[in-house]
Amino acid sequence: MSISPIDGFVSANGLQLHYRRWFLPEPDPNLPPILLLHGLASASHIWNLAAPLLAARGYVVTALDQRGHGESDKPSTGYDFATILADDAAAVQALDIERPVIVGHSWGALVALEYAVRHPDAVTALVLVDGAANQLSLRPGWSREQAMRDLAPPRFAGTPRETFLSYFRNGPLGSQWTPELEDIALHIVQLRDDDTVAPRLDFENHLQVIGAMWDQPTFDLYQQVRCPVLLIIAQQEPTSETQEMFFRMRRDGLARIQALRPDIPVVRMPDTIHDIPLQRPGELAEEIVRQASEKPPEFFV
To answer: So what's the pLDDT on residue 141?
Structure first.
């Protein structure tokens, strides 16, 4: 069964936020809604493969384009977590999404985690997809300024469309490349009239998000969150020294999280890239369904 999304805009915290929603003609009223939050410089379209699989199981599934991303408004300020959370909470209320299971990918996992802490009675469960596995400010030898320099995004505006797409096709996604994947990739960026692409998230706004990530006390949030949490981690062999260092720090971060919260399970997906929603949408959907249908232990009630 093919379930096409409905696209719309909602007024939230002074902005117009774009959303996509998937559902059956008669969704299951006993299932919690699912809210999908994309990663940094990504967009709601990254969920285009996994979301219909969830909707086919009876869930009402909504993906947001968060402030500055996708087709949503792009103000020059407000990229701290408090403002992002206010945006998302207002959108959730306007869209009548009651106690969702929140699924966050990458930076979206950090947003989801803090959302659940700040709105403890408004979240059924969390699924954190290859994100929120460490605390940026605890990276050895780093400063906030160093993080802003090292994590600054590439300036790729003006890249020909075919060159941009080749970055995906020549990587692990190439073996499963489809027109649908191409459409997703081109919707995450801006396709310009001269057949080149540009980021939708402005460079300065991107840096504001990195600064907010540095300031977030991620491990403290794990100690405070009270809804069930599932971590899903992509695993692959490192191809560079930088990647090897990142994986090592992530292992250390996961060890710390599990020491703080041994009740939080970690699902590891081998031979998988960071973009799990694109490479393993079926497996990801199954893990989300499992978490959404899990009865919470007494600790969370």
So the answer is: 87
Instruction: Give the max Cα distance, the chain.
Output: 58
Question: How do the domains of the chain map onto residue ranges?
Answer: 6-135+202-294, 154-200
Task: Indicate the pTM of the whole model.
Answer: 0.96
Phi, psi of 237 (to 5 degrees): -75, 130
Please name which of 134, 99, 127, 130 lies closest in space to residue 113, comparing C-alpha atoms. Answer: 127
For 24-30, the CB contacts below 8 A with 24+ separation are 24/55, 24/56, 24/58, 27/55, 27/58, 27/59, 27/60, 28/57, 28/58, 28/59
**CATH code assigned to 6-135+202-294:** 3.40.50.1820
Helix or strand or coil: residue 271?
coil
Alpha-helix runs per DSSP H in 119-178: 144-150, 161-169
Detail the DSSP E strand segments found in 134-257: 159-160, 189-191, 196-199, 229-234
Residue ranges in the chain whose pLDDT is less than 70: 1, 295-301
Smallest Cα–Cα separation from 103: which of 173, 39, 185? 39
